[in-house]
Every structure is written in structure tokens, then in C-alpha cells.
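Side project, low priority. Logging it here so it doesn't get lost.
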Amino acid sequence: MRLSLLCTVVAAGLLAACQPVRPPAPAAAPVASAPIGAPAAVPADDNLNAVLWVQRSAEYRAATAQTYRAAIDRLDVALKQADWDALVPEERGNAAKGLKPAVILDIDETVLDNSPYQARLVRDGTEYSDPSWDAWVEERQAKAVPGVVEFARAANARGITLIYISNRAVHLKDATLANLRSAGLPVADESVFLGLGTVVADCEQDGSEKDCRRQLAGRKYRVLMQFGDQLGDFVRIYDNSPAGRQALADRYDGWFGERWWMLPNPTYGSWEPALFDNDWTQSRDARRAAKRAALEVAQ
């Protein structure tokens, strides 16, 4: 899932949802050509191992597949319980009982794997930017996260609607829906894509938070499950600090593996800016220093 820089304009400093909003990255300094026969100078990148783990490790595929496989096993239980609901009470503005069943899924790193885009950033020594992200989305090349297609088909076969709540901006709707379909994901119609910028009556969206869009889905559907790779995919984060995030996760600990299903994503997330006071205006070196300072080192 990915936030847009537009979110920063709407709510500066509040980065508690999916992909952290980032300012335009400065142009990468050109790397001088190495003499023939000498190793090329490759700058270090914090995301190298994380992206490689997603792309090349058997462990990543096993983790995502087992998550979706376990969720399939819980679908019938959720369907049979009329009061089962995966929205927190403050986001459920109407009775869920009797509504059509649905599942809410984040898109990026939950349904679609964007690691090739992350790999480009590592290769080029750059950081996320809106133009490069939009260009990647328009390519419509993202593959399905392992296990999600099997889950989606199982849900669809049970008459469960899949709702995609994403921080991809609404102007990327057509490319996103085309990519979902090509990856094998059921798309009932255009209304199931609730991107960043979706207008929700009687609810004011705060930055990139998804609570208004979850409320919108809840007005029509009983939400059986939610899937995401960020805490903000499930509930609004008011305090995006390590302590605030952990308190929220602890509060809903019993929901994970039942109503909420978390996918692994080591490449980005709102956990990262929580370590440097959500201040993306700091230099890359300053942000790295804050992250290093947050390490728990064995004595």
C-alpha cells in the first residue's frame, strides 16, 4: 500500500497509514565509472536485504501463503456467525447483522507485490517519489502476493465481495483494476476500489488514514476479515510512535489471525517514520542515524 505526497499536504506530519508519505527524493549523485576490471562503486542501501528477502526467499512465500491458507479455513466460521464483524466499533456506524458479507484487502504488498519497483530504487540509489510510483502503477506489471489468489477465489465462491481499500490515488483506479484482474483477483465492479481521495459523506478523511473508507464499506457490507501489511490498514493510528503503535496492536491482539490478517512487509511502512518523529524533511543520513539509535543491541 502506498501513500501519496498529496496526503502530506492534507495532513502534514500525520503518517499513520500504509506506505509512509515521502518528500520528493533529491536526484541521486552520479556514480563515477570505475576503471575497466575494477569493481563498480555501489552505494549502500538500507532496503537491499528487505527487497531481496521478498523477491528471493522461500520464507517470504511460505509466510504469505500460510496466512491466506489459514484465513480460508476461517471463512465459513465467520460467515455462520451473524454478529461477526472485522471493523472496530468506532468505525461501525450501523448494524452489521443482515448485510452482505465482504472482505477488505489493502493492495500494495498485501495483494500486489511491488518489489520490482523497490528494486529499481535500490538499483538507482533513489527513494520513493510520486512520479516514479505512478509510472510503475501504470505499467500494470505487479504480480499477486503468494496465496492471495487462492484466498480470493475461495471467498468469491462463497458469495463474499472483495473490497480493495488502498492508498493508491483515485487517478490510478483504471490501471490498478486492470492489474488486479490480470493477476487473477476478482473485481466485482469499479466501486470495490476505494483509493486515496475517495469522498465519503459525513466523514472527513485525515491525510492517508483509511477509517472513512472502512466506514463506507461498512455501510453496505458486514466485514468478515481485513488484510493488510500495516497496522493502519486495520484501524486508525492516532499516535504514530513506537509506544502508541504497540499499545494499539496490544489492544486488538486477539483479532489477529481471526478477523485481521497481517502480511509481512520489511521494505516500508509507517513503523519507519515512527522512529524519527514522522519528519520526512530530515536528510536521509539523519533518518538513518535515528533508526540506528533505535536498535536494541546485545550487551
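Brief comment: Confidence is low (pLDDT under 50) at residues 3-35.
Revisit when time allows.
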